[in-house]
Structures are given as C-alpha cells and as structure tokens.
C-alpha cells in the first residue's frame, strides 16, 4: 500500500503550500534501515543542529549531546552494545549518532537562561532533578533532531534497542552524558525499509476535550 493511502485526504498538517514539507518530514518519511553508501558530511549535520537547536526546552536547558560514530573501529565498539537485531544496521550506516542527555547541563544556564540567574546554582544541589530534566528535554530535542535531519533530505533510523549503560561505559566515562538512543543517519536506499507502513492513531483516539 502506498504511504499516502494511509493518510486521510481531508487532513492537512501544514498550510496547503507546505504539503511537500509534511511529506518530507512526516507523511512520506519512513524509519530507515537501508542506506546508500554515501558519506554524510559533518557540515550537513552541523547545519541541521544549527537549526534544530532553536526548538524549545524547559528553561532553555538544551541538554541534548551527540557523539558522532563514523569510523569502522568506533562503530564496532558501539555495535558491541546494541541488541543483536540492531547490530548490522549500526555497522552498515554511513554515520551513527549516539544521542545523550547532559546531566551537567546546568553549568551552561548562566548563558542559556539569563532570565533565571539562580537556576544553575539551584540545580547544582539536586542531581536527581537534573537527571530527570536532562533526559526529558534531550528526548524532546531528539524529536526535533529527527525532523530536522529528514527536512535536510536525510533518512533516520532511531534505536533504543541498546545497552545504554554499556554505551556510557564504552564512550562517556567521566562525563555527565547519559545515552538515550542511537540514530543511524544517511540517504535512504529507495524507501529505506521493506516493512509496510503501519497506521497511526487518529485525533479521536488520542484527544479528549474537557
Ligand atoms: C525512540 C525510537 C526507538 C526505536 N528503536 C528501534 C530499535 O531499537 N530497533 C528498530 O529496528 N527500530 C526501532 N525504532 C523504529 C520504530 O519501530 C519505527 O520508527 C516505527 O515503527 C515507525 O516506522 P515508520 O517511521 O517507518 O512508519 C525506534 C524508533 C524510535 C522513534
């Protein structure tokens, strides 16, 4: 079934002249597990980040951090900490981003949150609150990142079938970064997947008015 067959033709996500964008980032975009063998330049990743970093986070905490895994040696180290069903995808992707939450994000708050000058000091004494905030907001930024990568024409294969503690021990010891997920990134080979598109829930299934 074509992707568009699953979409209610009466629904409009964005203004009508932006349907191409909706198609690129949502309705036509698939989760990609098969990529063409082209290098993804760091400049492109940097440009995507320069855009998506403007997505909102609580108190502008912006705790998302990225570890870029590109070399054969680095991806073999990473592949040792992902579930077996995901391993070949990490080994084959043009570039893989380990997405982490920085539990020390508060150290940047004097710059990031000048409107809340005491926030950094307050958070310094409550590491559990910081970790929860870091994880929640880095996940939020992960969504922005996936959409931004797609908007740049790239395909993305997010994965949480990983041993996050193992990835932390392998790459992030001595930092406040905590691994959340892994994103395989590159240009899709065809649709980038053989899996048929699965439906989504409708507005009536997910929303209630009070
Ligand atoms: C946070 C997250 C974690 C995921 N983890 C995995 C994973 O570990 N392995 C995998 O094969 N797919 C994983 N997926 C892919 C999802 O199964 C896929 O995005 C979903 O089925 C929708 O597919 P579609 O975008 O092609 O419609 C993950 C997706 C997300 C967003």
In short:
With 210 residues, the chain is α+β, with helices and mostly antiparallel strands.
Fold blueprint:
Blueprint: H1 19-27, H2 42-52, E1 64-69, H3 72-79, H4 84-92, E2 95-102, H5 109-112, H6 119-124, H7 127-151, E3 155-159, H8 164-171, E4 177-186, H9 203-206
Helix pairs in contact: 1-7, 2-7, 3-4
Bound molecules: flavin mononucleotide.
Pfam families: Nitroreductase
InterPro entries: Nitroreductase, Nitroreductase-like, Nitroreductase_HadB/RutE
Domain Nitroreductase: 30-187
Strand content: 5-15%
CATH topology: NADH Oxidase
Dominant shape? globular
Global mean pLDDT: 93
Which homologous superfamily in CATH is the superfamily? Answer: NADH Oxidase
Bound molecules: flavin mononucleotide
Helix content: 40-55%
Could you say which structural class the secondary elements and strand pairing correspond to?
A: alpha+beta
* Amino- and carboxy-terminal Cα gap: 37 Å
Q: Mind telling me which CATH architecture this is?
A: 3-Layer(aba) Sandwich
The major pleated sheet works out as:
4 strands, antiparallel
> Which sequence of strands runs across the widest sheet?
1-2-4-3
Number of E-state strands: 4
Task: Identify the CATH class.
Answer: Alpha Beta
InterPro entries: Nitroreductase, Nitroreductase-like, Nitroreductase_HadB/RutE
Biased composition (Basic and acidic residues): 192-210
Protein name: NADH dehydrogenase/NAD(P)H nitroreductase
Region (Disordered): 189-210
